[in-house]
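User: Fold this; tokens only.

Assistant: Input:
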Amino acid sequence: MKIRNLKHHVNWENAWKEMRQERMKKPKVSYDDEFFKKSAKDFSERIKLNNYEFGRKTTEILDEVIDDNFEVLEIGTGPGTLTIPLAKKVKKITGIEFAERNIKNLKSNLKEQNLSNVEIVNKKWEKIEDNEIKEKLDLVICSHFLWQIKDVDSLLKRMENASKRYCSIIQPCGRDETVKEIFEKISNQSYTGQFEPDADYFAYVILREWGRLVNVKYFDYTFERNMEEQVRNIASFIGRFYEVDAVLEKRIKNYLLEVSEDGIYREENQAAVLWWQPEK
């Protein structure tokens, strides 16, 4: 793999380590024993709104490089946010997914869509041997997965190792205003990006230092949740800093009652799609 030897290097490693430690904390939630099971189900159902809008719009952007003969490796499928729309456009997807809850929901969603061209590999990405995938795929892609990885540099190298044509990363940009406002009310401190999902700029900096020409496009998407789903969504972020017990759950719910007229909470956001060609 060809990488430029530059005299000056952007020190992104420390920022990545500190930001990742904050974002990867497991939420402390005690008001509902089935919180995590319900949250996984929430996400699986939510991505179906607007015909898999997030994954569909990603696929529409990538249409200029993919075709129906492509074999794809997707790192971290989740319940199929991207997998479902992408599977309708390509020959085959090999999906790497470790979480059993996600696999269960993904299989259900694939069956619902009558899709049979997705092979699910129940492993952590780090456990996949490089020689198993070297230059075997037309596209290697990961969506909303970067914060799961300790070493972004290594992820990008391994993605390029596996691809013979293209690599791609998709990341949401920014966080919904509601969770920021609730955090400030509960913590009595200013919101300074504690929940931001943005990680694409780390990948962009690394790839440009390597000399890659990175294509970037953005799209808008919308999620809708009912009251209970929105409480769980908020708790999944707040719980990284404060235990969400029955008392705090009630405070969150009371705030949400003030900001909704119809009981439906709409999150409007944007996402970035990056894609590039590896240099061998």
